[in-house]
């Protein structure tokens, strides 16, 4: 008749490591082998790691740890890998990867440049309108002076000045439209550059894998 097993409880050290794409639970299990371990996840999002291995004198070392899967993780994508030096890695991928700092900085720089160009375009348009109004007022004042001194000559000068003022305002309007169009094109180019920066900083190597069910398979490195 086989003797009953005597167990010695073991409390493994562990660490949770985070990055932009996943959480990784690192559990130190010296002396254990892959076949000694069992990794499970229940429907409530609790990760259960347990194991037992034989010791000398008929004793067995055992442990059992439970961890709550962090919010925002893909429970169906959890994977476990066991290193030969006795370190277990349980990878829990995020459903939505976080933004990298360089990408966020590039986005902020692109938005700031777009805002600066938009403000410059608005200021330029306002200045153009003020200059046009000032020119119109000066032309109107000149017409009144000419009419007071000589009605016939004033009428001719008023017609000539009016034509010149109209042509001047029309030319300035066209020039302002060209400048506004160029600024709009510049803003659009900055927006395209920002999108390109976002694409450059994105990491296309997302880790995806089908769910294995309640028991997480163990793999060797």
TrEMBL record:
The protein's name is SHSP domain-containing protein
What is the membrane topology noted in the UniProt record heading this document? Single-pass membrane protein
Region (Disordered): which ranges?
98-158
Q: Give the family per the record.
A: Belongs to the small heat shock protein (HSP20) family.
Grouped into one coarse class, the protein's main location is: membrane
Where in the sequence does UniProt note compositional bias of the Low complexity kind?
105-122
What positions does the domain SHSP occupy?
Answer: 5-109
């Amino acid at each position: 008749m086989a003797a009953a097993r005597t167990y010695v409880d073991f409390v493994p050290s562990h660490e949770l490591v985070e990055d932009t794409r996943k959480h990784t639970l690192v559990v130190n299990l010296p002396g254990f082998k892959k076949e000694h371990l069992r990794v499970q996840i229940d429907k409530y999002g609790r990760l259960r790691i347990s194991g037992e291995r034989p010791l000398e004198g008929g004793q067995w070392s055992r442990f059992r740890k439970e961890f709550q899967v962090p919010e925002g993780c893909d429970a169906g994508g959890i994977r476990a890998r066991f290193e030969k030096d006795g370190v277990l890695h349980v990878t829990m991928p995020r459903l939505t990867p976080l933004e990298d700092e360089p990408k966020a900085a590039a986005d902020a720089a692109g938005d700031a440049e777009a805002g600066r160009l938009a403000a410059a375009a608005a200021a330029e348009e306002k200045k153009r309108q003020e200059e046009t109004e000032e020119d119109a007022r000066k032309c109107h004042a000149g017409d009144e002076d000419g009419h007071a001194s000589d009605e016939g000559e004033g009428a001719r000068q008023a017609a000539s000045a009016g034509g010149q003022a109209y042509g001047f305002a029309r030319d300035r309007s066209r020039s302002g439209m060209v400048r506004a169009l160029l600024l709009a094109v510049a803003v659009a180019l900055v927006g395209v550059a920002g999108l390109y920066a976002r694409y450059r900083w994105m990491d296309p190597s997302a880790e995806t894998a089908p769910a294995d069910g309640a028991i997480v398979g163990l793999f060797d490195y």
